[in-house]
Amino acid sequence: MFNISHLRVNYINSIEPTNYEFEQLTYVYGKNNVGKSAMIYALDFVLGKSDVGLNDKEGLDNILSIELEIQDNVDKLFLKRTIDDEYYYKIAEEDEYFQVDDNLYKQEISNFINKGNKKFLDEFFLFNEENLSFRAFTFFNFIDEKGLGNLANIFARSKDYEHQKRARKLMTFLYNYKNIHELCKLNIDEKKLAEKLNSYNEIRINYNYSYKEILKYFVELNIETNGETNELYERFLNYKNGFNRNNESVNRDDLNELIKASYALSEELKYQENLENQSQKLINRNKKSELVLNAFKEIVRDDDHWQGYIENIEELINKNKYNVDVLSIKDYKKTIELIKKKKNRIDQKIYSISKGINKSSYEKTSHILSVLEHLFKNINNSKEIVEYEKTKKTLEMVQGKIKDLNKKFDNNLIKAFNETILSWYKRLAVNVDFAEEDLGKPGFCIDFNPIQTSLVGKRNYKDDINEKYVYNPGSMARETTWQILGCLANLKILIDNFQELPFMRLLIVDGINQPFDENPNSYPKVFELIKEISAEIGVQLIVVSTIDRNEIDRGKQLDLSTGFNKAHNM
Q: What pTM does this model have?
């Protein structure tokens, strides 16, 4: 079983080192400002913490190096780190320390923890493109004093953005492991497709440029711009052929006749549109009249006095039907569409002839046609663009699958977590008032979100057992209890399902008693519970408190009343 067994503090100026012994349960005691948090920092420092130096931490001055002994059953590993960030390790106490760089130092600790087992490591690298060491799991192992009671993110060490990203990757790997194999394959496919797509980048840029230029010149020549590339090319050829024919012999009389024809068609178009409008109004009015007559007919049907009127009404109804049928015979929309098409053809001829009359206009159009021919040649020769579009669609499909699979977490693991934490919490029901209150709520449960690393309490909505709502726990004692149980539940998930991973079976809680200041009677019971659970699941527990353990529980404690660093301020 993994265990931190010995911590040694070496000082400058040949001051005698200080040794601290740890057991499976270590209760660190001391009043405020004696260096309890400094001890936790020193432990993390020798375990490879990299963001801050040792002497940058208040209370850790005049220290030369920190040594640590860790053991796992019969095996031992001795570690040493200096204030100058020199890293050493050895595997036997009588050996000389061997100096390594920080990466190999962390790798040696990882290999010691999981005995070099690579069952999950290769998959994690494929999934995240990152080598996994035990340091990635340390947010499981520490609950710092400032992070106590935070249920929005139960892992105090993952509050920074950088650590949030790593925690999210790791929690996705753990709680979505059933899809990891498929996600790894998709990630490889995504990378290959992205590289392939990137190789077409220059071709795509040239293609897009040519396409935009074609549309620009089409607008200038008054050519329709809708449709696929092959349709645009067909219109270009038609325009080019028509332009050349029109400019072989330009006849002003032809232009005048075309203008007259265009004007006549405009008048005809207005007339037909007016007829369509009047026809529709008449149809609508006749239909309304028919409805009124039918209604009146029904009213007087059973009165013999009105029999003659009924015959007249039926005659009027039949006449209206006939009028509506007559008005519906002519398809005005079709007539109008035909006139518009004919007028558009004539207007295009007018435009072409008009451009041909002006020499400079003719030369400009000829130049545009020459440029367009070159642009279309570029596009038509870009056969790779078809492969680019195909690759792009495939990449989007793969990315969509990755997105979907990343959301499909293993509900069995989440269920196991929720059931575990609830069963532990129930062990407090008899002796702790806030636990009794929670468990008395209908349908009470504690729900874990792996990605947000959050815990929420839920209960039934009134008497509806099928609907639950989230509620705020409301006290630091309750929130801290949930948080600690949540961290232990995550460690149990790791131990039960991913024991080959290089994580420390360790939980360190700094300032554990402080959230219970307003509810002091519950602290001994909560401490007793987490002590029992840690022993049951095989996790070393180190708690730091300002309350003497003898006041709450008989057992050994590490007394820091005289201070952690005996060279402090010397």
A: 0.69
